[in-house]
Amino acid sequence: MIKHSGKRCTVKGCNNFLYARGYCMWHYKSLYLYPRQKSRNKLSKRKQDLNDKYIRQREEFIENQRKKHLQRKIFCIFCSKEIKGEPSLHHALGRDDAIMLDERFWFLSHNSCHVNDYHSKAYCMIPWWDIYIDNIKSITDDYVRETILRIEVKRMDKSNYEREKRKKTNNNNE
């Protein structure tokens, strides 16, 4: 969980909590970090090959998910609603090297559910959290289901610990 002071992003129309340099997490990454990262050294041959493979594999994955439904609909792992347009790809184990290519842990989502909610809020502040947990519980692969549930339980425990810690601090300050 990300700590914040209750202040909001300085970008006009954005109501997300402040993360760094006057921006929410999303705007900080897109407006501050990304332009600086573009000027960094080129990727190694191995990393570029991995990225190229990922891009091809991602396109095939999305197409295969569309083929599973009669009307080629795809649905968000988080809120279960239909995704119209380009989906975001949630990597349940992260995006480090070879882990990034393990499709068993890839899930389609709305960009807003993925970035604005899942990666930016505590689980108790996310309206679709119980739907997401139910969707994870319905995964048929035991290893995948148990691995993701373990990650999410750890996330919830950490969030609860932080909330209790804040309560104690607030009570001591009064």
What would your notes on this structure say?
This protein is mainly alpha-helical and 174 residues long. It has 2 domains: 1-40; 41-173, no CATH class. The protein contains 5 helices and 4 strands. It has helices spanning 25-38, 45-67, 111-118, 129-137, 142-173; strands spanning 74-75, 82-83, 88-91, 106-109. The protein has a two-stranded antiparallel ribbon with strand order 1-2. A hairpin with a 6-residue loop joins strand 1 (74-75) and strand 2 (82-83). The mean pLDDT is 88.
Give the helix/strand layout.
Layout: H1 25-38, H2 45-67, E1 74-75, E2 82-83, E3 88-91, E4 106-109, H3 111-118, H4 129-137, H5 142-173
Antiparallel strand pairs: 1-2, 3-4
Strand tally is: 4
Fraction of helical residues:
40-55%
Which whole number gives the mean pLDDT? 88
Largest sheet: 2 strands, antiparallel
Straight-line distance between termini: 24 Å
Low-confidence runs? none
Q: Give the amount of beta strand, in percent.
A: 5-15%
Separate helix tally:
5
